[in-house]
Design brief:
Length: 469
């Protein structure tokens, strides 16, 4: 098995002749604090690589399909998005058969605060006008889709009017919605909380719920613009699950399933080993993914299952990646607290799952965004919007170099507005957006984003060629 103590420093084996830029950044230590007590690490200088540092790379224009796929490389067209490994690199494939990478902001919807809504009315007239101009903003800057928690009805309506549609995603939240119905879950920053940090995968009612809940997919089944589905977000699939299930009330189905599993192996709470915990986590994951995938594919066999957005230590659990790969088309990972993707792990994920991955959340906040203290949310803080742009290029270059990444979703489209009442705790006052609450773009961020996005296919070819030299 892999060593859980593997450090970020050990994972980084970077070419120092390319990582010649230095960018100052600090980490949020007490993340999602909204009471003024958030704290940050000291600023530290991080080795950074941008397109300009790549030896021998020649930028150029790539002709694109209506969906944003590359017109110079084509394979079988199915009328829907899917993934395929070709000559050692994973690609998404657009509905017309052209090789495709899905790059998109998350949360593509208008902030709900009063002053943001007034700004929307003043600038765009209504939500349809906002969506029309936002789609154009994305296309102009090399984005081709929308990530999680987006205004999908507005996107679908706009897609029907244009010859350059956005590839959107749908969050289904099978477990979270079942938890709402069942009871026992609670709100916490970033994702839903569960009793003892264990999900309800063994409830007889969960499979029944998935069967009924998945019937809604009929509305998306024939839409070529849907990239795929997320089944949930940041669930506690953790190595401590066996302990958590065995500490549930004995009437709970989760306790009964864990007790039976433990009894069959002669295990008690006092004799559990780390290997038992890993084996049981695989058992829980198989139950969850198997149940969800069956319902999802029954009602929509046309679109991809994009996983459940792993976070934290989950990306270092080989047993979790192996089970996930049996059921999903793409492994989704919310990837925080790393300045550069870890070369070891972006390789291991594909080997373990035998599927490509997507980074479905990542961002950096700038200190120069007026009125935003950045006390909410996780991850990095840098001094300027230009530094945010350098981080974007540095991170995505690592993803492209891996050959295993078929997309990345920046969190998020629009900044938080501190005046919004009742905001989710991790989204209260942070500069995460590519536009501010008035829908004004951060151009020093967008310029390097656009440069990278418009060169992403050429960059993939560049890294492929370099790997063979």
């Amino acid at each position: 098995m892999f060593l859980t103590g593997f450090t970020a420093a050990q994972a980084q084996q970077l070419d120092t002749t390319e990582y010649t830029l230095r960018v100052d950044a600090k980490k949020t230590l007490n993340n999602s604090k909204i009471d003024g007590t958030a704290s940050f690490s000291p600023y530290k200088s991080y080795a950074t690589r941008t397109i300009a540092q790549l030896r021998g790379f020649k930028p150029g224009k790539t002709k694109l399909s209506k969906y944003g796929g590359r017109l110079d490389k084509r394979t079988t067209a199915t009328g829907f998005y899917y993934v395929k490994k070709v000559d050692g690199r994973w690609w998404a494939v657009d509905p017309e058969g052209y090789y495709f990478l899905h790059n998109a902001p998350n949360n593509v919807q208008a902030n709900g605060s009063e002053r943001a809504q007034q700004a929307l009315k003043d600038q765009f007239g209504d939500k349809a006008g906002w969506m029309r101009k936002t789609r154009q903003l994305f296309i102009d800057n090399g984005f081709n889709g929308a990530g999680a928690w987006s205004a999908n009805e507005e996107i679908r309506a706009e897609n029907a009017k244009t010859d350059k549609p956005l590839a959107y995603t749908v969050n289904l939240d099978f477990m979270a919605k079942y938890g709402d119905k069942r009871g026992g879950t609670y709100v916490q920053p970033g994702h839903k909380g569960y009793p003892n940090d264990v999900i309800f995968a063994f409830d007889p009612g969960f499979a029944e719920f998935c069967e009924q809940y998945a019937q809604q997919l009929s509305k998306y089944k024939d839409d070529p613009n849907l990239f795929g589905y997320f089944s949930d977000n940041e669930m506690p699939l953790l190595r401590k699950n066996l302990d958590g299930y065995l500490k549930l009330p004995q009437a709970e189905p989760g306790y009964q399933a864990a007790k039976l599993w433990a009894d069959q192996r002669g295990i008690t709470l006092e004799t559990i080993t780390d290997q038992h915990r890993q084996d049981f986590l695989a058992f829980v994951a198989d139950k969850y993914f198997g149940t969800v995938a069956k319902a999802l594919k029954k009602y929509d066999p046309n679109h991809m299952y994009l996983g459940c957005r792993f976070h934290g230590a989950q990306r270092y659990y080989p047993e979790l990646m192996q089970v996930t790969g049996k059921y999903v088309d793409v492994v989704s990972i919310n990837y925080y607290n790393h300045w550069t993707p870890e070369p070891k792990w972006v390789s291991e994920w594909e080997k373990l799952a035998q599927k490509p991955f997507m980074v479905t959340e990542w961002y950096v906040k700038g200190e120069d965004a007026p009125g935003l203290a950045n006390t909410a949310g996780a991850g990095w803080v840098v001094r300027t919007q230009a530094d945010r742009g350098k981080f974007y290029q540095n991170f995505t270059l690592g993803l492209l170099e891996s050959k295993n990444c078929v997309g990345w979703h920046w969190f998020k489209y629009q900044d938080n507005d501190p005046t919004l009442k009742g905001a989710e705790p991790s989204n209260t006052d942070a500069n995460k957006g590519i536009v501010n609450y008035r829908f004004e773009p951060y151009q020093p961020l967008l310029l390097p984003m656009r440069e990278l996005n418009q060169q992403m296919y050429r960059l993939a070819d560049y890294f492929d060629k370099r790997a063979t030299q």
